Amino acid sequence: MAVEEEQVQAPVESAEPVVEDVPVLAVRDTVIFPGALLPITVGRPSSVALVQSLGENRTLAVVSQLDPRVESPGPEDLYRVGTICVMHKAIRVPKDNLLLFCEGIARARVVEFTATEPFLRARMERIPEVEPEVTSEVEALRQNVVSLFQQIVTASPNLSDDLASTATHITEPGKLADFIAGNLPALEHAERQRLLELIDPGARLVEIHRHLTRELELVELRGRIQSQVQG
Fold first, then answer.
1. In the chain, where does DSSP find H-type helix?
2. What is the DSSP secondary structure assignment for residue 43, as one 8-state letter?
3. Which of 53, 93, 177, 190 has the largest CB neighbor count within 10 A?
4. What is the mean pLDDT of residues 140-158?
5. What's the rounded Cα separation, in Å, for the pair 124 and 106?
6. How far apart are the C-alpha atoms of 60 and 103, rounded to whole Å?
């Protein structure tokens, strides 16, 4: 079923933004979406100091670097939109690194940095997630997205079938877009960051639909080439 992109209605802004002062974990080539649980390996002295400072309040902001090659990123080296997370566990791993298990809670925008030593801190404004009204167009787009994702999972041996099952039961457009964005290996870091910065859930679902369409074409092309080679 064809879906007109302009028919996806934008959400109505309502809730007051929540601003909080939190430690900022700068990461390379990593984007955490709200609702996702992601392992992150850290080893920089500033990152280790940040983790050790958390205590019982394990809230932090995970913000991606503009250039992953920068060894000691400052405020000017980071994107302005990241994710408020809760760190559930930190495990020491070889080479004096820590493996953090962080759960994304909410999108957040940097208001201002409040400290750079011994680690970055910033006032972060949580961005409310206001799902669009579920019209027939939005529902048709959601079903298309789920169908495309299921086909990609089926054709990709490295993706678990559970992912397709989980996607089927996510009814909110924004949450569905975030879930797929966090589990689609083909997405580049810049593409994930763009999806994180897309505040409108309807627009995010349209964007994910584009990525899935492109990825399915590539998967089918690879399959045809494989069959020809084997033939």
1. 45-53, 136-155, 161-168, 173-183, 189-197, 201-230
2. -
3. 177
4. 95
5. 11
6. 10
